[in-house]
Design a protein that fits this description.
The protein is mainly beta. The protein has 3 domains: 33-122, Immunoglobulin-like (Sandwich), CATH 2.60.40.10; 127-302, no CATH class; 313-514, Jelly Rolls (Sandwich). 5% of the residues lie in helices and 40% in strands. The chain has 5 helices and 39 strands. Strands 8, 9, 10, 11, 12, 16, 17, 18, 19 and 20 form a 10-stranded antiparallel β-sheet that branches. Strands 22, 24, 25, 28, 35 and 39 form a 6-stranded antiparallel β-sheet that branches. It has a 5-stranded antiparallel β-sheet with strand order 23-26-38-31-32. It is elongated, with a radius of gyration of 31 Å. It starts with 37 loop residues before the first strand and ends with a strand. Keywords: Signal. This is PKD domain-containing protein. Residues 1-21 form the signal peptide. It comes from Flammeovirga kamogawensis.
Length: 516
């Protein structure tokens, strides 16, 4: 197996490893450094590739590599295990290798100096280096910018996951805060990193004090929870970059006073989620202890808004009996448990042999809050002539609509939330990053506390009439635009039991259709 690692401060060291056999240690006295012996010599193919051989009898060998900057400064660049290993060193410089042997008597360490006379840039010809910097032919490096017209170019999520589960930025969502015009240049030569912030930087509120202490500046825009735009001049002379590997994950690491454009804290380590020639997606832990995400594209394409391919506007039949007849495809959202073709538990109000069973599960967080059943259509709905949906539904009488999920387990903007005795049909635009703003919703509550009506425990047919629904299609909070005037809906969502809670519930649905 061969892997490549390099050091910032020495410009680069690429370490490779081919592990061979391991001898079982012999019983004996504790070894000393004088007992540790090994040889090293350039390979016949390349003087920059060194082979190290453990010659200490009865031992297990562990190797560590360091780049030597000066008499007092060096940096660890990697480690290997095995009696025979090889390590390619790309650039000229001084290095140090240590061998630690382990025997039944104990362990001991010895070291040797390595001098690499000439640079071999062919050893830097790796996919990661080439994608990030443009390769050895790109003398001035490669310039990246935030891909601001791509959803989730900024993101937020819990540290336990690898995706921005809590927030995915909309296209061009924060154009005034200073990071969309930042230019990040990564150069293979000297592993130089440069950030041209064009005079201002976007700073997370939780990281403001750190930023001011490290870089100074003046607040130009205070956008509250969205962050600060801070005017500051940067000196990037000593800024360097590296790609390292830990526990099977790759990281982009920064040195000196470097930071990565949008400042969320003093982190120097960014996990590489994706690195291609046209996309760089990173994750780091911010000053607030949360995971923050960065999406970049090369400068030539980052500011180009991709064309929107619009679906045709059509009037078509839509139906699904959730058993054996359908012309659309519903899928579950989050941890909803849905069964197609479940035996009908009550044929007195619905003679269908099989129906759909909709089960809300007791899941925490996003997996529990938004348990919907949804379908994206290959066309946009023309609601001007056909705008009434119907569906049969059965609520189990045993469902609990009074016990609330505590506020600590609901979204921050909610308090205690119980499961709702309602069914809602939502129409949304799949291309709108804030689809909740422009959606059309029609709902029905099977329990009316004011009249004492309770329709649980029986099949009822619910009508969702969008002729009477107004929407916030203008996104001005006026809810003045009739749903039937909107021509962008291509997504249907069935939500039973409300949202924002983790309470369980079981429901049955049948015969969903768009009326003539």
């Amino acid at each position: 197996m061969k892997k490549y690692i390099y050091s910032f401060l020495s410009l680069v060291v690429l370490l490779g490893m081919t592990a061979c056999t391991e001898d079982k240690p012999d019983v004996g006295p504790a070894p000393t450094s004088d007992d540790v012996t090994f040889t090293m010599q350039p390979t016949s193919d390349n003087p920059n590739i060194i082979q190290f051989t453990n010659t200490t009898p009865g031992s297990i060998a562990y190797w560590n590599y360091y780049s030597v900057i000066n008499d007092t400064t060096e940096e660890a660049t990697g480690n290997d295990k095995g009696d025979i290993v090889t390590a390619p060193f790309a650039l000229a410089g001084n290095y140090r290798v240590t061998l630690t042997i382990v025997s039944k008597g104990g362990q001991a360490t010895s070291e040797k100096a390595i001098v690499i006379e000439n640079t071999d840039f062919s050893l830097l010809d790796t996919p990661d280096f080439n994608n990030l910097t443009g390769g050895i032919d790109s003398i001035n490096g490669k310039v990246w910018k935030f891909e601001r017209f791509v959803i989730a170019h900024n993101g937020l999520g819990p540290v336990e996951t690898q995706t921005p589960d809590w927030w995915k930025s909309a296209k061009n969502q924060k154009p005034t805060l200073g990071h969309y015009d930042d230019e990040l240049t990564f150069n293979l030569y000297n592993f130089k990193y440069d950030l041209n912030n064009n005079g201002d930087s976007h700073v997370l509120p939780a990281a403001k004090d750190l930023f001011m202490a490290n870089y100074g500046g003046t607040v130009k825009i205070d956008a509250g929870g969205d962050g600060f735009n801070i005017a500051t001049d940067l000196t990037t002379t000593d800024w360097k970059w590296a790609i390292t590997e830990k526990d099977g994950k790759k990281f982009l690491e920064l040195k000196g006073d470097a930071f990565l454009s949008w400042y969320v804290g003093d982190s120097k380590e960014f996990e590489i989620i994706e690195l291609t020639a046209e996309h760089l997606y990173l994750r780091t832990i911010g000053a607030d202890g949360n995971a923050w995400y960065y999406g970049f594209a090369p400068k030539a394409i980052a500011d180009v808004e991709p064309p929107i391919i619009e679906k045709p506007l059509e009037v078509k039949d839509i139906y699904d009996n959730f058993a054996d007849s359908s012309n659309i495809t519903f899928v579950t959202d989050a941890d909803l448990d849905f069964t197609v073709g479940f035996p009908n538990i009550d044929v007195s109000g619905n003679d269908a042999e099989n129906v759909g069973r909709y089960v809300r599960t007791e899941s925490e967080g996003d997996a529990g809050w938004w348990q919907n059943y949804q379908a994206e259509l290959p066309f946009r709905l023309d609601l001007s002539t056909r705008n009434v949906f119907k569906m049969k539904i059965y609520f189990l009488p045993s469902n609990d609509y009074t016990t609330a999920t505590p506020a600590a387990s609901t979204p921050d903007w909610l308090g205690d939330v119980a499961m709702s005795s309602s069914v809602a049909l939502r129409l949304e635009n799949s291309l709108d990053e804030e689809a909740w703003r422009t959606r059309a919703e029609s709902s029905y509550n099977i329990i009316d506390q004011s009249t004492g009506r309770d329709e649980s425990g029986e099949w009822i047919e619910v009508t969702f009439d969008f002729k009477t629904v107004n929407t916030d299609a203008n996104k001005d909070w006026s809810y003045s635009v009739p749903a039937i005037n909107n021509t962008f809906y291509d997504k249907i969502i069935i939500q039973i039991g409300g949202e924002g809670h983790t309470r369980p519930g079981t429901f049955y649905i049948s015969d969903f259709r768009l009326e003539q």
